[in-house]
Specification:
Elements: E1 10-14, H1 16-24, E2 31-35, E3 52-59, H2 65-72, E4 78-86, H3 99-121
Amino acid sequence: MNREKYDQIYIIGFSIGATIAWMSSEYDVDGVIGYYGSRIRNHVEIEPRCPTLLFFSRNEKSFNVLDLEIKLKTKNKTVLEIIEAEHGFMNPFYKTYKSKEYRDCILISFEFLKQIESLSNNPCNLVK
């Protein structure tokens, strides 16, 4: 990654993109946000080096979200949000879209990014 070109680097991903974002949290990025990255369950050994916010749908068909939550909730710099919804709830073109949850998650994400920005100005306030 050509870091000197950018002041800050954030990665935001959905589904498999969230898993890739999670995997990237070990590298030189400033923050990661992932929405319903179901394959994160195959990469629980990752130790994020940057603030990481993960949203999961409580009603995932392919795995037990609560089992994954137990494995991830002790990770440093990691915040988990379990949403009463199904996979794809952020996509307005998908049948499981939930507008209220979409808005709530966007607000949480913006607040998370603001927190990271304040951390860069005061590194003593580390996330978890």
